[in-house]
Amino acid sequence: MIYFDNSATTKPYKEAIDSFVKVSTSYFGNPSSLHGFGEKAERLLKQAREQMANLLGVKSNEIYFTSGGTEANNMAIKGTALMHRSRGRHIITTKIEHPSVKETMDQLQEAGFEISYLPVDAAGIIDISILEKEIRDDTILVSVMHVNNETGSIQPIEQIGHLLKYYPKILFHVDHVQGIGKVPLDFYKSHIDFCSISGHKFHGLKGTGALFIHEGVDIAPLLSGGNQEKKKRSGTENTAGIVAMAKALRLTMSEMNNKLEQLMKIKTYLLNELSVIEEVMIHTPEHKSAPHIINFSLKGFKAEVFVHALEELDIYISTTSACSSKHSSASETLMAMGVTEMTAKSAVRVSLSYENTIDEARYFIESVKKTIAQLRKVMKA
Fold first, then answer.
1. What pLDDT is recorded for position 226?
2. 326, pLDDT greater than 70
3. CA–CA distance, 127 with 68 (Å, rounded to integer)
4. Is 323 one of the annotated active-site residues of the chain?
5. Which residues form a coiled coil (predicted)?
6. Which helix (H) or strand (E) holds 282?
7. pTM higher than 0.85 for the full model?
8. What does DSSP assign to residue 347?
9. Do the beta carbons of residue 141 and residue 159 sit within 8 Å?
10. Given this model, what pLDDT does residue 118 score?
11. For 75-119, what is each residue's pLDDT tens digit?
12. What share of the chain is helix, strand, coil (3-state, %, to 5)?
């Protein structure tokens, strides 16, 4: 099997699974319990929090555990809106955000907030001068994803943070789900207030994630009850999943240090080979894009037909983001980049991990050519 759908989810590391099993069987106490067995679980939580904070270059008291990237995004955006609505009801985001941000903005708009959506250029990048023009006295939050989940485009997060430094009343949220472990990001240098990550995107287990909240920044909790996570996110902690996520992050950061160059070589090879195929139109920008994502359209073919054809060869890719791939509508991200609706409907995404090899890439290119030829014959028949 060749698995090229790592932006949808990754295969969990064996070490992460082993950690999950060990904690689930030997340290299953409730971290909030007063007895010693519960205290052992609490210590594991503390260690995982400290390990993740160290890997991310932040303080341990700035890490809040969630059920994943979707919850982290909702927590940052809605929590800010609820906390600061008396100060202002204007939020700025982009036209190419993940559905967990887009739909959160839709909900807030229905609740009386005003949302400004920044356009992007043909490479999927925003213009900071346009962002600055959208800032108003009642703006309370700017939310911009780091790496686009469909095209891999990288937003100028550090420059945005430097701009917002001159607007201290505006908080800055970054969806770092696709960038973590692939594209370095300095939270402090970028003046980020909130940053979302998801465990299953870096070989942890589904149902785990975290939100970085800069020290001194406050939000209204979305989940109330047991006062866990310093009252910002109530609910009994998923200790085993959190320990496994910390382990996966450590391994991923090590892989990034050792294998990033190899990953970039595979991406470059794929881009070069795909670019000479007549039916292929590449949407991922050559520069300012992540090393693991390639998005391209197949002229004259439906994306889902191509995905299933490759599946017959035991090769797995996707259409748009996993959260939207079962819907037949065209990618809003690609159309925001100026791609026609028809072309956007034929787009597919290849997303790599550090476990993929150049041999897999070569077989993939051969299979793409073979599949296009076969589909062309069927269409002419």
1. 86
2. no
3. 29
4. yes
5. none
6. strand 280-282
7. yes
8. E
9. no
10. 98
11. 999 999 999 999 999 999 999 999 999 999 999 999 999 999 999
12. 45, 15, 40
Residue type, 203: H
Q: What is the CA radius of gyration of the chain?
A: 21
Q: Is the pLDDT of residue 142 over 90?
A: yes
Please write down the HEC assignment for all residues of 220-251.
Answer: CCCCCCCCCHHHCCCCCCCHHHHHHHHHHHHH
| The two structure tokens encoding residue 300 | 């004259």
Which H or E run contains 378? Answer: helix 358-380
Contact 80, 55 (CB under 8 A): no
pLDDT of residue 327: 55
Q: Is 288 helix (H, G, I), strand (E, B) or coil?
A: coil
CA distance 51 to 371: 45
Residues contacting 186, CB < 8 A, separation 6+: 57, 158
Residue with tokens 């200790």: 239
Tokens of 103: 């739909």
Task: Give the burial class of 233: count Cβ atoms within 10 A of its Cβ; 0-12 exposed, 13-18 middle, 19 or more buried.
Answer: buried
Which of 323, 332, 335, 360 is an active site residue? 323
Task: Return the number of other C-beta atoms located less than 10 Å from residue 313's C-beta.
Answer: 16
pLDDT for res 262: 97
Cα gap 379→322, rounded to integer Å: 28
Rounded distance between C-alpha atoms, residue 170 and residue 164, angstroms:
7
Listed residue (178, 164, 194) closest to 78, CA to CA: 194
Distances (CA, A) of 270 to 56, 95, 274, 358, 359: 30, 27, 6, 9, 11
pLDDT tens by residue, 150-209: 999 999 999 999 999 999 999 999 999 999 999 999 999 999 999 999 999 999 999 999
Q: Where are the beta strands (DSSP E) in 188-230?
A: 194-198, 209-213
In angstroms, rounded to a whole number, what is the distance separating the alpha carbons of residues 3 and 5?
6
Mean pLDDT on 27-52: 95
Dihedral sign for Cα 112, 127, 350, 211, please: negative
Give me the residues paired with residue 172 across strands. 142
**Of the candidates 86, 364, 342, the residue with the CA atom closest to the CA atom of residue 334:** 342
Determine the pLDDT at residue 375: 87
How far is 167 from 136, CA to CA, in rounded Å?
10
- With 0-12 CB in 10 A as exposed, 13-18 as middle and 19+ as buried, what is 192? buried
H or E segment to which residue 171 belongs: strand 171-175
